[in-house]
């Protein structure tokens, strides 16, 4: 832990490796694994997770933006990288010069990328995103012929892949919409074949799709939440069970910790914290926890979260503040300042899962981990 940091995130190397291996075993041999490390590796730490995943032989990295790709290149990571989000026209040349592939769906991007590639005297690698039903990024079926004509006319453009993303996999156990998207994707791929545009990688599968359906793995899967040892949703777990898909031992990668800043006694009938939103009816012992909503500990955990100290649960009293909050340690023997506090993750025989925190604040596990402030140190543990 660096000296001025009082809250930190531990990343288990063993868990990252386990999760890659589990997913490798799920797909047929030869299917590539893209480690999706966008958004600071879902809050786990871009450089920390990417170093482990690169050393463990993942085939691709998926990032949101060129900045993240350049950070990986500056770490001397040679693994292919795909920018999944939007790349502004002004940055296309940098993408080519750093040998970064781009998800592309706009005609203007293709034209400007050709110019950039010609200037760099290199090929630009693109993955054409196909709109199959999410109605987010993607070339629509109506525009695909025109788009293919344009791509074919640009000699420095190499179609490295085609991709799509599912709208309704994690939220349901009824997957007819996803099946329709696969059909749409395969029809679009036929159009590439008919136009004589060869495609090296077809990729559609996020974690849930990769776990549930063999026929969507194609040449590559895009592994996000599963890389971090988290299930995409309760519905995905139920679907896997219903489909008799063998037990998946995903291991959560993250523990978020801090230390107790102060312990003190309060009298019976004392208000606790801003807005006097909590009140103790009996004489109590409270502990001040030096983390708050700035750090990513959501304010909606006011009066409802809990932390683990000395292996025991300490409930949140009152409001989560910007940089601290208060917990009740009346029933935990011997708590003192600088005792370790677990905010998220497993202790020896208890846990505060991202799912538990998510359900308390009305969100998903993805958001809980991703929103942990990037400024907190990420520490790799064995
Ligand atoms: C385009 C794309 N592919 C793959 C993923 C990874 O999905 P998951 O985290 O569910 O595996 C995401 C995540 O948001 C995404 O946006």
From TrEMBL:
Q: Which parts of the sequence belong to the Alanine racemase C-terminal domain?
A: 253-381
State the Gene Ontology BP annotations. Answer: D-alanine biosynthetic process
Q: Which domain of life is it from?
A: Bacteria
Catalytic residues at: 38, 274
- Alphabetized SUPFAM superfamilies for the sequence: Alanine racemase C-terminal domain-like, PLP-binding barrel
Q: What molecular functions are annotated in GO for this chain?
A: alanine racemase activity; pyridoxal phosphate binding
Quote the function comment for this protein: Catalyzes the interconversion of L-alanine and D-alanine. May also act on other amino acids.
State which pathway it belongs to: Amino-acid biosynthesis; D-alanine biosynthesis; D-alanine from L-alanine: step 1/1
Instruction: Give cofactor(s), names only.
Output: pyridoxal 5'-phosphate
What keywords does the record list, in alphabetical order? Isomerase, Pyridoxal phosphate
Q: What is its EC number?
A: 5.1.1.1
Binding of substrate, residues: 136, 322
Q: Report the residues modified as N6-(pyridoxal phosphate)lysine.
A: 38
Q: Which family does it belong to?
A: Belongs to the alanine racemase family.
EC top class named in words: isomerase
Q: Which GO terms describe its cellular component?
A: cytosol
Q: Read off the Pfam families from this record.
A: Ala_racemase_C, Ala_racemase_N
Q: Which InterPro entries match?
A: Ala_racemase, Ala_racemase/Decarboxylase_C, Ala_racemase_C, Ala_racemase_N, Ala_racemase_pyridoxalP-BS, PLP-binding_barrel
Q: Which reaction does it catalyse?
A: L-alanine = D-alanine
What is this protein called in UniProt?
Alanine racemase
């Amino acid at each position: 832990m660096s000296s001025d940091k009082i809250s930190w995130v531990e990343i288990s190397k063993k868990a990252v490796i386990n999760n890659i291996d589990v997913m490798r075993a799920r797909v047929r041999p030869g299917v590539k694994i893209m480690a999706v490390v966008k958004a600071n590796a879902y809050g786990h730490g871009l450089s920390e997770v990417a170093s482990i995943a690169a050393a463990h032989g993942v085939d691709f990295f998926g990032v949101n933006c060129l900045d993240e790709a350049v950070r990986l290149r500056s770490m001397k990571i040679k693994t292919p990288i795909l920018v999944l989000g939007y790349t502004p026209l002004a940055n296309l040349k940098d993408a080519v010069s750093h040998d970064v592939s781009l998800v592309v769906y706009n005609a203007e991007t293709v034209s400007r990328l050709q110019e950039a590639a010609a200037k760099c005297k290199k090929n630009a690698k693109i993955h054409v995103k196909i709109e199959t039903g999410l109605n987010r990024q993607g070339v629509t079926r109506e525009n695909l012929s025109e788009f293919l004509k344009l791509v074919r006319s640009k000699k420095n453009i190499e179609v490295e892949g085609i991709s799509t993303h599912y709208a309704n996999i994690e939220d349901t156990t009824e997957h007819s919409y996803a099946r329709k998207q696969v059909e749409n994707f395969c029809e679009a791929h036929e159009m590439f074949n008919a136009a004589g545009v060869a495609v090296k990688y077809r990729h559609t599968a996020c974690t849930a799709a990769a776990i549930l359906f063999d026929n969507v793995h194609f040449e590559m899967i895009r592994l996000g939440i599963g890389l971090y040892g988290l299930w995409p949703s309760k519905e995905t777990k139920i679907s896997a069970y219903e489909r008799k898909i063998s037990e998946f031992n995903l291991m959560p990668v993250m523990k978020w910790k801090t230390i107790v800043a102060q312990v003190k006694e309060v009298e019976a009938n004392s208000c606790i914290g801003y807005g006097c939103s909590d009140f103790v009816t009996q004489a109590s012992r409270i502990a001040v926890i030096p983390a708050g909503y700035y750090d990513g500990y959501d304010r909606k955990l006011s009066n409802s979260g809990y932390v683990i100290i000395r292996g025991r649960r300490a409930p949140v009293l009152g409001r989560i503040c910007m940089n601290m909050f208060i917990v009740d340690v009346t029933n935990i023997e011997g708590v003192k300042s600088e005792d370790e506090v677990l905010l998220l993750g497993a202790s020896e025989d208890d846990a505060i899962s991202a799912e538990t925190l998510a359900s308390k604040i009305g969100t998903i596990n993805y958001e809980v981990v991703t929103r942990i402030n990037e400024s907190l140190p990420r520490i790799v543990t064995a």
